[in-house]
């Protein structure tokens, strides 16, 4: 019995490393516009529109890494100084007061982009420019610019290849930087950029298949340039109908793309992504909506109701009454919570702890444990 | 690998019957084959070259905007009626001012510009044109030195206004030029000021400028080109010494000459005459000195906006006389028939074009070739090309008389919209024009032939020359070996030396003849062009006689003993012509192409006339006759006369020499490499062909 439990302990530590059991705790967005020059106005407008959308749906600025390769707002050719529009009706200025651009101009390079994804920064890079995600993060990676067969052009000078992207994602997975990653790309031949992806938990959607172009949606004849791309335009049109509490699924987003309107075929790759798309709300990536789980204590490692009860039973009586009041206050919450909603990680620890509590002679367990460990060490060293 | 190699060796040994002679490589074999059959191939290649030239209008591609940044026509025009009324007011003011006052209209224009919010300045310049100097040919623009003892008798005053881009970095600019004769300018000329005034009124208030706008009103009293060139010179090479000109006249121009960064593009606007067609006509002139062209994108943008937005009838120059030529029509019909036949065979082959299109294309192509070959800029835009600025001249002909007020409003609006669109496109540029072609020939405003295509015609024409030279050399060596009793076996490879001496002497002569006009110009006293041409002709011919007398074996009239074998002489001549043509094709392709059309047949066909006459065979007589005709045409003066006749300009009989002189003067004044080509390639080769024709063999 005891040995079984020890093996369970070992297993537990392995299970922990796989990370599948972690729950979705936070949302991040990395929004990248890779092309500069005035005539690529629409790429910046695309990115800023998406920035506005994810912010509206609840991802805070500190969790959005916005990379803009050029500054159209302050371009001398811009008829509306310091403003960027994604529609010719000029109703919505995307470049308002609260736009935090993290990487701008020539900072937007393939190197910096890969550094953001993989988290390998120099020490001096401030926290606001880092993607500080963890194993519970859902990340939205949106990229727009000029692409081709398995590459995406950065700054008219360099390219991000599909291998580079796949490699970065793999590193992220190994470093447990995300739980789920959604890559959305609006470029020509966008689908080819996903060819090399292998890491689980990655969902990819691109605006066009191999050999197809992604077209701009319309031209603003006051500004004199195209202001938004078709794919992004219809993505935004979908999200404009939603608010933060809506339950629209990813499937409904993907079905909203009409090849006739896009003039290209939107492509999505789901083979690396387990959940059923119809059951995943879009806010899983484009917003920051998640279940709240009540925890009693932030700092205690084994924080669970049942364990607390056990510990409390040994407490002095005068403290007990006080604690009971707290318990009563917590009861309504407890009832609302279904069994499903309980964090599996916490649940497992609770179970283990309960079993450990039942042992009468703790010393024997410890001694046995040491013996087993010596045994294991001997075997492993002899194998080596 | 080793075994394979051995097999190969064995094979070779077997095939060569034991001898170790290695088979020559295929390319060498091909060369030998071509040289051995050079007469056939030279005829085939030359014919193919001419055919390729004739076929060019069929191969013309539609122009397209190559640079993404340009985006012509994507922005809505912002011109308002207020701008147009500003422009109209300017024209009216100028008219009234000139009726009532004598003197400086420039001030009025300057006042208008500064009211618009531009920085205004005046520039005085000397009308003195370019002078021929042999060393100035490839030296680029003059480092225009200010003369100390200038007279105030004649000078021009340019007005320039600069609108600074409100949020631009001030490092780039776009130039608008309107040549205007402030003394004699007609009503039509004033319209160009009206259009630009309208545009200027708009540009002064827009927020989208990234480049500064310079409006130069050039004083075209002394020609269109000179004031622009003078302004550009001062713009690019500032002088730190006060010119004496500043003190001349009442207008004080001592205020600083202002600049506005490097020029991205320049547009010269002229309004002249009434349009013959129902629509307003826009003629585009692009050729700068030595056949240099502005980037094709600039023409494309203007053409696109003029045709698709403003409804102008756009044209480029064409040789009108070719439109009615019957032989070209027949060729066009043949091509049309062949095109149709090909289309029936394979529906994908769509190279046939209607005869009318072919005629139009050929006439435009001929004019394009001619203007490039001449090397003289076709307008003030040529001055910009010297500074690597892309520029074109737009000549607008309205379809109404200049005093019609109602039409004028519409005309200003459309003209200014065209310029606004072009400027907005250029304003979008991030770099210099570089995306599209610089080497091209136009067959219509929207069709072009790129360098890769038109080079083929020239390459085919010239390809036969080295072949024939090689084969003649081999023949000549054989003949020499047979004829001379003392076989010069040791110096076998030096046989071409005598011939080379002659060729070199005549090329040297050509160089001296080329430089002679410089010295003739230095002769004191006033001489008429005909007198000068006579002086030139006599000195040249006496020099030629001296050359023939002093260098033995050079003259065609020397005895046979001294004379070289004509075949070797011809071989070296052809080589020299080949090198000359190839060099010229790099400097100015159009000159080389037209030159090759003349020089290649002459060089190939020429043969000593004496044996031909002696043999009395029809074939050789015909050959002799052809070479006589070609040589007569090939004489530069004759060529000039023929080209004059071809372009429909009447000859004034006896003054041919004088006209020729004036023509050459214009060539060297514009630093045209064509002049060098005529003097240093064409003339020596022509003389050498004469020598061969009269060779006493």
Automatic annotation (TrEMBL), chain A:
It comes from the Eukaryota. The keyword Hydrolase does not apply. Residues 1-19 form the signal peptide. It holds the Pfam family Peptidase_C13. Pathway: Glycolipid biosynthesis; glycosylphosphatidylinositol-anchor biosynthesis. Keywords: GPI-anchor biosynthesis, Signal. The keyword Transferase does not apply. InterPro entries: GPI_transamidase, Peptidase_C13. Belongs to the peptidase C13 family. This is GPI-anchor transamidase isoform X1. It comes from Camelina sativa (False flax).
TrEMBL record, chain B:
It holds the Pfam family Gaa1. Keywords: Membrane, Transmembrane, Transmembrane helix. InterPro entries: Gaa1. Coiled coil: none annotated. The chain crosses the membrane at residues 40-60, 451-474, 503-521, 533-552, 572-600, 621-642, 674-694. This is Glycosylphosphatidylinositol anchor attachment 1 protein isoform X2. It comes from Camelina sativa (False flax). The gene is LOC104770262.
């Amino acid at each position: 019995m005891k040995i079984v439990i020890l093996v369970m302990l070992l297993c537990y530590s392995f299970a922990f490393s796989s990370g599948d059991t972690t729950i979705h705790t936070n949302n991040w967005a990395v929004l990248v516009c890779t092309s500069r020059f005035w005539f690529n106005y629409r790429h910046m407008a695309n990115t800023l529109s998406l920035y506005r959308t994810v912010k509206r749906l609840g991802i805070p600025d500190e969790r959005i890494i916005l990379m803009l390769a050029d500054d159209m707002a302050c371009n001398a050719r811009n008829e509306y100084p310091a403003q960027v529009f994604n529609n010719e009706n000029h109703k919505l200025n995307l470049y308002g007061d609260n736009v935090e651009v993290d990487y701008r101009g020539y900072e937007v390079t393939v190197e910096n982009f890969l550094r953001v994804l993989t988290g390998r920064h120099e020490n001096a890079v401030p926290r606001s420019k880092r993607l500080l995600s963890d194993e519970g993060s859902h990340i939205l990676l949106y990229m727009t610019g000029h692409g081709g067969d398995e590459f995406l052009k950065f700054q008219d000078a360099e390219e991000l290849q599909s291998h580079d992207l796949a490699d970065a994602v793999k590193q992220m997975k190994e470093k447990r930087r995300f739980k789920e990653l959604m890559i959305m790309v609006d470029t020509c031949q966008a689908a080819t950029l996903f060819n090399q992806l292998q890491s689980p938990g990655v969902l990819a959607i691109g605006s066009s298949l191999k050999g197809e172009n992604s077209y701009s949606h319309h031209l603003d004849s006051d500004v004199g340039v195209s202001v938004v791309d078709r794919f992004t335009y219809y993505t935004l049109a979908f999200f404009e109908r939603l608010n933060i509490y809506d339950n629209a699924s990813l499937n409904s987003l993907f079905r909203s793309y009409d090849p006739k309107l896009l003039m290209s075929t939107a492509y999505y790759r789901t083979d690396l992504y387990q959940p059923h798309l119809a059951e995943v709300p879009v806010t899983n990536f484009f917003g920051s909506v998640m279940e709240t789980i009540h925890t009693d204590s932030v700092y205690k490692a084994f924080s669970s109701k049942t364990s607390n009860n056990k510990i409390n039973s040994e407490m002095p009586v005068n403290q007990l009454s006080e604690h009971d009041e707290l318990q009563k206050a917590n009861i309504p919450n407890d009832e609302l919570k279904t069994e499903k909603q309980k964090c599996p990680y916490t649940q497992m620890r609770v179970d283990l702890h309960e079993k450990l509590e039942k042992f009468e002679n703790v010393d024997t367990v410890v001694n046995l444990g040491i013996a087993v460990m010596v045994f294991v060490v001997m075997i492993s060293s002899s194998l080596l | 690998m080793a075994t394979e190699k051995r097999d190969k060796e064995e094979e070779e040994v077997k095939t060569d019957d034991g001898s170790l002679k290695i088979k020559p490589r295929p390319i060498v074999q091909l060369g030998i084959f071509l040289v051995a059959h050079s007469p056939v191939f030279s005829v085939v290649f030359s014919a193919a070259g001419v055919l390729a030239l004739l076929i060019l209008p069929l191969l013309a591609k539609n122009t397209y905007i190559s640079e993404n940044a340009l985006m012509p026509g994507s922005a809505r025009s912002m011109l308002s009626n207020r701008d147009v009324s500003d422009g109209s007011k300017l024209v009216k003011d100028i008219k009234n001012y000139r009726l009532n006052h004598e003197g400086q209209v420039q001030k009025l224009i300057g006042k208008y510009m500064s009211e618009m919010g531009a920085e205004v300045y005046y520039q005085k310049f000397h009308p003195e044109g370019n002078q021929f100097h042999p060393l100035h040919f490839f030296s680029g623009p003059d480092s225009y030195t200010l003369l100390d003892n200038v007279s105030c008798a004649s000078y021009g005053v340019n007005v320039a206004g600069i609108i600074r881009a409100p949020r631009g970095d001030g490092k780039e600019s776009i130039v608008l030029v309107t040549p205007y004769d402030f003394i004699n300018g007609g009503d039509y000329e004033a319209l160009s000021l009206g259009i630009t005034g309208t545009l200027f009124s708009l540009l002064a208030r827009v927020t989208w400028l990234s480049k500064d706008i310079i409006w130069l009103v050039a004083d075209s009293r002394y020609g269109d080109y000179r004031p622009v060139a003078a302004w550009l010179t001062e713009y690019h090479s500032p002088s730190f010494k006060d010119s004496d000109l500043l003190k001349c006249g009442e207008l004080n121009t001592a205020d600083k000459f202002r600049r506005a960064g490097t020029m991205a593009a320049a547009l010269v606007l002229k309004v002249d005459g009434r349009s013959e067609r129902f629509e307003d006509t826009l003629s585009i002139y692009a050729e700068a000195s030595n056949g240099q062209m502005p980037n094709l994108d600039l023409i494309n943008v203007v053409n696109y906006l003029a045709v698709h937005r403003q409804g102008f009838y756009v044209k480029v120059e064409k040789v009108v006389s070719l439109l009615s030529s019957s032989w070209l029509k027949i060729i066009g019909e043949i091509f049309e028939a062949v095109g149709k036949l090909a289309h029936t065979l394979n529906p994908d082959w769509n190279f046939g074009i209607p005869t009318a299109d072919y005629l139009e294309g050929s006439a435009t192509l001929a004019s394009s070739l001619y203007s490039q070959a001449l090397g003289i800029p076709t307008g003030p835009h040529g001055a910009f090309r010297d500074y690597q600025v892309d520029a074109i001249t737009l000549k607008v002909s309205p379809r109404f008389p200049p005093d019609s007020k109602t039409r004028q409003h519409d005309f200003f609006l459309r003209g200014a919209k065209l310029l606004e669109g072009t400027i907005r496109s250029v304003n979008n540029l991030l770099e210099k024009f570089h995306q599209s072609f610089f080497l091209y020939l136009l067959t219509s405003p929207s069709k072009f032939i790129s360098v890769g295509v038109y080079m083929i015609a020239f390459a085919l024409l010239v390809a036969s020359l080295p072949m024939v030279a090689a084969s003649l050399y081999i023949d000549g060596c054989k003949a020499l070996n047979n004829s001379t009793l003392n076989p010069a076996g040791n110096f076998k490879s030096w046989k071409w030396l005598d011939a080379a001496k002659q060729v070199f002497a005549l090329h040297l002569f050509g160089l001296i003849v080329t430089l002679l006009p410089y010295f003739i110009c230095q002769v004191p006293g006033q001489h008429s062009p005909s007198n000068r041409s006579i002086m030139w002709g006599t000195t040249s011919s006496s020099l030629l006689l001296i050359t023939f007398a002093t260098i033995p074996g050079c003259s065609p009239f020397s005895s046979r003993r001294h004379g070289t074998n004509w075949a070797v002489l011809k071989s070296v001549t052809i080589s020299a012509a080949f090198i000359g043509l190839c060099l010229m094709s790099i400097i100015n392709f159009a000159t080389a192409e037209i030159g090759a059309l003349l020089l290649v047949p002459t060089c190939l066909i020429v043969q000593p006339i004496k044996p031909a006459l002696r043999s009395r065979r029809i074939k050789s007589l015909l050959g002799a006759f052809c070479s006589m005709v070609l040589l007569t045409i090939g004489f530069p003066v004759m060529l000039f006369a023929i080209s004059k006749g071809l372009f429909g300009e009447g000859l004034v009989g006896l003054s041919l020499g004088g006209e020729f002189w004036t023509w050459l003067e214009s060539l060297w004044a514009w630093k045209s490499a064509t002049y060098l080509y005529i003097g240093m390639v064409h003339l020596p080769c022509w003389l050498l062909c004469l020598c061969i024709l009269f060779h006493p063999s």
